[in-house]
Design brief:
Structural class: mainly beta
Number of strands: 17
Helix content: under 10%
Strand content: over 45%
Radius of gyration: 21 Å
Number of helices: 4
Order of helices and strands: HHEEEEEEEEEHEEHEEEEEE
């Protein structure tokens, strides 16, 4: 707990120093990231000059919190199960904090930002699991050491190539993004104070956006059409893998596991140690809705998608712990004041079944899938 107190004091000092002395140190700005039922904020300081001429050096202090209603699709012995009579739902409150640096390695002169960047980061996570709303989740009868919650700390190293471009007027997105990340949470890094964590996570992903149609004509109902494809691989291993690491896909901005990333299936289900996921979308961006004074409020759109994944090392799933999921569907969404997108999705399982055996599923989320 002393470490947490020192981090809070350092965070307040960082924010105060960056805002007061920003003229001397560089440019201070905020990057808020809305999440489902939560908010993460990066307090950023772009050093002027940076460590290398012609490339940005950015210090980042991150703080966030959220509350989620999740599922634990395993039995008392932490073995996968999908028996319909079991209650899988539980409530999670989590807080996260971190401190890191982004150092540009290559410069994108067209977008005036780092093209290739190295990220070094410390991240702390505190999780509280609750049995609320008469959920009576099987999680709380399990053998997991973190069934009630956990506190753990990790080191993150990421190499990011970002050659994407968004037209703020039409909503068109194009270009390529790739990521290679490693997260390490050893036991000796104060990871045995509240429960226990001892794990490593490897993640790589590539996203590609291809323009099909774009117009600046104000009378056109559809402003832009583009294709998006994202493929990634996630491998988590260790003697004590915490639920937030096993149930998610990705490192820097973790999302749901195979269930959830393959839309139409229950979120956080199929939480295997090896996940390979592909998401394909065709997105249609409509005209912006503005006030009488021209202030931009909404930018609606809709999309069709096809998701697939391969997973392995899911103990208790069939005989070999591996499987394939596929789904397809559509979604409507709208950007609000450039803060992000609220999305309603309808998904249809193609390979694999929901536990309730429903032929379709509805979900309301915040943010585009990728």
């Amino acid at each position: 707990m002393e470490n947490k107190k020192y981090f809070i004091l350092f965070s307040l000092f960082f924010i105060f120093s960056a805002s007061v002395f920003s003229n001397e140190l560089g440019q201070f700005y905020l990057e808020p990231h809305l999440t489902p039922w939560g908010l993460d904020t990066d307090f950023c300081l772009r050093l002027e000059p940076g460590f290398f001429e012609g490339r940005d050096t950015i210090l980042r202090l991150t703080m966030g919190s959220s509350i989620n209603w999740l599922g634990y699709y395993r039995d008392e012995n932490d073995i996968y199960t999908d028996e319909r009579e079991l209650n899988y739902q539980y409530t999670r409150l989590n807080a996260n904090w971190g401190l890191g640096i982004e150092q540009g390695l290559l410069w994108d002169s067209y977008n005036e930002r780092n093209l290739l960047s190295l990220f070094l980061r410390y991240r702390g996570v505190r999780v509280w699991n609750f049995d609320m709303f008469d959920q009576d989740s099987i999680l709380f009868d399990s053998i997991r050491p973190d069934k009630d919650g956990i506190l753990y700390n990790t080191f993150i190293i990421s190499l990011i190539l970002d050659k994407t471009l968004i037209n703020n007027e039409t909503g068109l997105k194009k270009g390529v993004y790739s990521e290679l990340s490693v997260e390490i949470g050893p036991k000796w890094f104060f990871n045995d104070i509240e429960s226990i964590a001892d794990f490593s996570k490897l993640f790589m992903a590539v996203k590609y956006f291809h323009s099909i149609y774009e117009t600046a004509d104000e009378d056109k109902f559809i402003k832009a059409i583009y294709l998006g494809d994202s493929v990634g691989a996630d491998y988590v291993l260790g003697d004590n893998i915490p639920l937030p690491a096993r149930q998610t896909f990705g490192v820097r901005k973790p999302k749901n596991a195979c269930g959830g990333m393959v839309r139409a299936f229950e979120k956080r289900r199929f939480d295997s140690e090896i996940k390979i996921i592909n998401n394909f979308e065709c997105r249609f961006i409509m005209s912006q809705i503005k006030t009488s004074k021209g202030t931009k409020i909404f930018r609606p759109g809709f999309l069709g998608f096809f998701d697939s994944c391969y997973f392995d090392k899911l103990e208790g799933y069939k005989n070999d712990g591996r499987g394939v999921l596929m789904s397809a569907g559509f979604a409507v969404f709208s950007e609000f004041l450039f803060l992000g997108n609220c999305m309603l999705t309808v998904g249809f399982p193609i390979i694999g079944k929901r536990i309730d055996e429903s032929p379709m599923a509805f979900s309301l989320d915040y943010g585009l899938h990728f």
